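Morning run. Coffee first, then this:
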Amino acid sequence: MASCLDLKTGEPHWQERLFSQNVKVSPVAADGHIYFSSGEGECKIVRASKTFEILHSNDLDEYLIASPAIAHGAIYFRTQSTLYCIRTP
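And here it is:
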């Protein structure tokens, strides 16, 4: 489950199930987006706001073995056999 809570009151703005399987990697945030990924290689990008909105959903077709990393305008995903670097122009 992913949740967005009010920092002062602790009241939830939203709570959503993003994946059906157990998630073992941590979400990361950058530029107003939160990047959620499952160990199965599924990735969802959610807008960091009080209203729940999935912006993109992708599947790397491989198990992720680490939380995504963000650096220098790119996001990096480590799977069992590949290191992916994804950036927008």
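The first strand starts at residue 2 and ends at 5. Good start to the day.
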